[in-house]
Design a protein that fits this description.
The protein is of the alpha/beta class. 30% of the residues lie in helices and 17% in strands. The chain starts with 7 loop residues before the first strand and ends with a strand. Bound molecules: ligand MGD (2 copies), iron/sulfur cluster and molybdenum atom (MO). The site of one ligand MGD has 33 residues, from helix 7 and strand 9. InterPro entries: Asp_de-COase-like_dom_sf (IPR009010), MoPterin_dinucl-bd_dom (IPR006657), Mopterin_OxRdtase (IPR006656), Mopterin_OxRdtase_4Fe-4S_dom (IPR006963), Mopterin_OxRdtase_prok_CS (IPR006655), Prok_Mopterin_Oxidored (IPR050612).
Amino acid sequence: MDGSLAPRIVRTACPHDCPSACVLEVERLSPTRIGRVRGSAAYDYTAGTCCAKVARYAERVHHPGRLTQPLQRVGPKGSGQFAPIGWDAALDRIAEAFRAATARHGPEAVWPYHSGGTLGVLGRWGLDRLRHVMGYSRQKSTICITPAEMGWKAGHGAARGADPRGVAEADVILMWGGNPVSTQVNLMAHIQRARKRRGAKLVVVDAYRSPSIEAADIGLILRPGTDAALALAMMAVALEEGAADRAFLAAHTDWDAAVEAHIRRHTPAWAAEVTGVPEADILALARLYAGTKRCFLRAGVGFTRARNGAATMHAVSCLAALTGSWLHQGGGGFFYALDGWGLDTRLAWGSDLIDPKIRVLDQSRIGAVLAGEALAGGPPVAAMLIQNANSAEVAPDSHAVRRGLLREDLFVAVHEHFMTPTAALADIVLPATTFLEHDDLYLGLGHTALTVGPRVIEPVGEARSNHAVVCALAARLGAEHPGFGMTEVEVLDATLRSSGKGSWAAATAAGFIPAANEIAVGEAFAGFPQPDGRFRFKPDWPALGPYAAGMPGLPSYWLNLEEAAEATPFRLITPPARSFLNTSFTETPGSRSREGGPALRLHPADADRLGIADGARVRIGNARGALTLTAMRFDGLLTGVLAVEGISPSADFPEGIGINALVGADPVAPAGGVAFHDIAVWLRPA
Ligand SMILES: Nc1nc2c(c(=O)[nH]1)N[C@H]1C(S)=C(S)[C@@H](COP(=O)(O)OP(=O)(O)OC[C@H]3O[C@@H](n4cnc5c(=O)[nH]c(N)nc54)[C@H](O)[C@@H]3O)O[C@H]1N2
Ligand SMILES: Nc1nc2c(c(=O)[nH]1)N[C@H]1C(S)=C(S)[C@@H](COP(=O)(O)OP(=O)(O)OC[C@H]3O[C@@H](n4cnc5c(=O)[nH]c(N)nc54)[C@H](O)[C@@H]3O)O[C@H]1N2
Ligand code: SF4
Ligand SMILES: [Mo]
């Protein structure tokens, strides 16, 4: 930093768990204060746009509720009674708890835990370096995209796709089960470009009338979890009407007569019955998709957050292979760029030290892990350090998560910006810097560049970065690794250099580094990242994860959902809220006033049948829990389907627990993940 008091615009990058990973321009009013934040024009994916919640980041970084000093619990667990404790004493307490847990049960009793509060190369995964050096339990990060990732990999071989900027060259953009108006604003800017330049059509498939359906040319609203039926019928129509690309199928896929016969059995009439989408709409979409060469399939994550989610993603992703749209500019498909970054993570994450014998605990099943029910054969978890995660709110089966975090024999330290419901259950709470106060690099999972995030202002209060906390604990625990003695910039610079991606100085000058390896489309198309280069219509599910039993060997509507039953006749989805980012921004006044309190969208016919007026208080529940919220009559979903947008704070519900109390923690096939939009519930007037 230049240290001057003069206002100036500083270029950095957004750290949030959002596929846009925007390059930002931040107005620095002084070494300790920011003004406005804008999307930067320096990178053509960000293209000068960022979302409203980050544009108002001054509200978050300068929020009066920011944690500014380390705290220790002084009342009973969960009482929320804390008193200040100095940094040294707080770090000593954590190191002591880790040593005690290790002495009693071995190092696997310590479970360092991180999630998506930041997607920084150091901020998110730097904790793994301490984990691997010390032999602590490993973490399987499943809460976000695992079912989608597995479903995409099943066909394509890797979580890679066409460059998402390709949507600007498409004639049809088929946005399947994603809501970019709320969750990826930049993508909408690229779609707008295609509409303007090429007269392109945006098609959105969702389970409720999302803001993106409102913005679409064609919107299809189906019964949650039934997307594969729609995709299969679309493929059957394409085959029937001779619109499949036979040469592409023969050259670049494992297509055979058995696959063809199987797909052809799925008629639009059958799919209409299953999905609730009128048959004529299915036919029209099938003809539009198969009849357009430049058709970009942009898969979201929402439709995979169900027990059949991976199989559904696979079925949907078959569409682009069937029509051979990969051979055309503006064609092909994209979900997330998770593979192919080519980063040497040994220094930052200690990834060369991974001991495969050390157990792996499932992030999403934190409740079951802490209850001793999902310990993968090892000792109980006795000590945790949680960074970038608000597990008490975001993880499924919230009652179990709380019970676990409140265990008297468990030590929990939470490193946070705010006193979240998770932090409130901790023994030690540490204040964390925001991205504006530390240096990091971010993976643009919704595009294909690394974005560069130098710090902009001094830390707020005594806040320290994740890297600083990891290094300070390492020193106390006697953990040895070169990364522990380096500054953030030193680790990032060395990481870029050993990855052949230049230097930190060059990266900050550019603002972004093209990195992930996309699948080429058009004339450059050279096959899929499968060992034989061919897309697989016949996935090898057991190769992808341990829960593959019963998964279909061909693209299928796999009837594996939390089916509505007599006691729980409604199906509930819990899609993201526009002004929150998971639970981040639930603390800022601007976002809170935009979202209002928790609301239940329900079809007017269901409301009439149950005598529920608009604005009435209602209860929803199942065997896992029950919640009270406000009814919102809404004709943008099918009867029998309910939607609650956003993860509103637990304190906004009279029960003192939030929406994830209703969500099951059973792992989604084949490799784990959470069925956040696959919930059977009952509904009553309150
Ligand atoms: N504003 C905002 N932005 C965000 C987030 C946020 O919370 N708020 N979260 C961030 C994170 S962590 C992620 S992973 C991404 C997620 O980004 P998305 O992929 O856009 O979000 P999803 O939760 O996956 O849900 C997307 C849509 O899927 C729909 N859906 C639910 N069930 C079904 C179904 O069975 N079929 C179909 N076709 N659609 C269904 C939902 O109604 C929702 O509109 O967004 C990121 N960006
Ligand atoms: N019902 C329902 N539940 C869901 C979802 C859904 O669609 N519906 N979506 C799921 C998805 S996709 C995801 S990814 C998860 C996300 O769940 P989480 O990854 O837990 O995300 P957040 O709720 O945003 O909480 C992140 C926390 O990290 C903190 N944080 C941010 N930056 C830093 C930092 O640099 N250092 C430290 N120490 N802390 C930091 C923030 O203050 C915030 O409290 O939620 C899941 N839960
Ligand atoms: S939250 Fe997403 S859209 Fe908003 S600034 Fe960050 S990366 Fe961009
Ligand atoms: Mo996510």
